[in-house]
Records
---
Amino acid sequence: MADEFVKGLSIFTGAGLAWMVLAGWYRTPSFESSQQLVAPLSLGDSATMFDTLGVLLMDVFFWFAIIGALTFWVGIPAVRQAREAIEERAQ
């Protein structure tokens, strides 16, 4: 169980850090603002391919952090518990 927790924590920490870096670049209009990291995107017409890729990766890292952590913290232990219950019931 500790192994799954550490894997989930690593995914959550790594993907969360990547999301915060990209959100700091693309979702922070100024550092005096009260809407840091959550301001709406404002790329405009001058957006390059790298800006578009950064915004795409920001969404990917966000969902990877959420789904990856839940997979290791909830999904895998639930499947193991269900498998053990089914094996006990079959005996």
---
Amino acid sequence: MNTFTIFLILIILVSFLLVVVVMVQNPKGGGLSSSFGGGGTQQLGGVKKTTDFLDKSTWALATLLLALILASNFAIPGAGGVEDSKIINGSETTTTVPATTPVDTATDNIATPGDSL
């Protein structure tokens, strides 16, 4: 497995976890945070701590996802452009530049093949 494949698996895993954490939350206070001690007067751990945990885990997973996406850019094969991919594949070809006609700088005339400079 190459580096890009590892980054891709991690990105998919973190994305799935982020979706699960966001879906567990309820914007009106009903989600997982209300199921821990929501009905009685005694609260085990408290609703506030569960909400804080879900909020912090959402931010942590979102930051991790962004960092993985940015870091995976360095692992993409051939990300350097067309020239780098030709060199890596071993199919580098040389191109010849056509010769230009010399210019006589003293008179700013174009030299012809029979003229001497």
